[in-house]
Design brief:
Layout (H helix, E strand, L loop, with lengths): L1 H20 E10 L2 E10 L6 E7 L7 H12 L3 E5 L11 H13 L1 H17 L3 E11 L1 H11 L6 E5 L17 E7 L7 H14 L3 E6 L23 H18 L5
Parallel strand pairs: 3-4, 3-5, 5-6, 6-7, 7-8
Antiparallel strand pairs: 1-2, 2-4
């Protein structure tokens, strides 16, 4: 009986012990003359170098949701960096302000890529990261950022977009794509026009990009975000099934490109 009690206590403590191994650090860095504040997460119980994952936030800015995803990835054995795309870790709750901040980044593609690439550099330089095994994932604005990195031929193994805007790539620019691309899309998302999707797919097909696009039936924008419903916007809704399945699709792709069994 005593042994059973000890075993039960040990099992109860296991999740906490695993969680405690995930370390997070705020990283302050610069791009040009602007200061940024991102969050790096890793499990210090994992031995040796492991792949690094860039996590790019929604158009709200580097909020707790993006940081939570970085911690989840760290719990899976990756080094994850939640990058700051606006500067000084700025966030907002106002859709118009969020749209304006994202729009300012998108207007200058060179700067857009430079800000995201700064996050990849932080991963490469982390002592526990294998700099030859990097990927980028993103949500909403962050999804379009991950795809923009892939489209530009940045040296990453995979790019994953969750309910992201889909930048229509220049066909000539796709010749240097190195990443395998995964697009997780809500089939009922009214923010992404089907015409845009067809143009993106056509460009990828013509260039021979290794991509997959998964439609999740009935899913709206922000389907992976539990807090989406609290925004009181009709186009946003959390979908737990689409969230679970899209995360599983991402993990399967990572197992493939990193040749791992996480």
């Amino acid at each position: 009986m005593k042994r059973l009690a000890i075993a039960v206590i040990a099992l109860a403590l296991c999740p906490a012990a695993v969680l405690a191994a995930v370390k997070t650090e705020t990283v302050t860095y610069t791009v040009g003359d602007k200061t940024f504040k991102g969050l790096i997460a890793f499990d210090d119980a994992v031995k040796g170098k492991r792949p690094g994952i860039l996590v790019v936030h929604e158009f709200w800015g580097l909020d707790e949701y993006a940081k939570k995803r970085a911690k989840q990835l760290a719990g899976l054995g990756y080094v994850a960096f939640a990058v700051d795309m606006y500067g000084d870790g700025k966030t907002t709750e106002h859709p118009k302000e969020a749209s304006a901040m994202a729009g300012m980044v998108r207007m200058n593609q060179k700067e857009w890529i430079a800000r995201a690439s700064a996050g990849l550099k932080i991963l490469r330089n982390h002592p526990q990261c294998d700099g030859d095994k990097l990927a980028a994932i993103g949500y909403c604005f962050g999804g379009s950022t991950a795809l923009t990195l892939a489209n530009a031929g940045v040296d990453i193994k995979a790019a994953v977009s969750f309910h992201g805007a889909l930048p229509i790539p220049e066909e000539d620019g796709l010749k240097n794509v190195k990443a395998k691309v995964l697009i997780c899309h809500g089939a009922a998302d009214p923010l992404i026009k089907e015409e845009t999707i067809l143009k993106v797919r056509a460009a990828y097909e013509k260039a021979g990009v290794d991509y997959q696009m998964i439609y999740f039936g009935g899913a709206l924008h922000s389907f992976t975000v539990p807090e989406a419903d609290s925004k009181k916007m009709s186009v946003l809704r959390y979908d737990p099934v689409a969230d679970r399945r899209s995360w599983a699709a991402m993990r399967a792709l990572f197992d493939e490109v990193f040749e791992s069994k996480k």
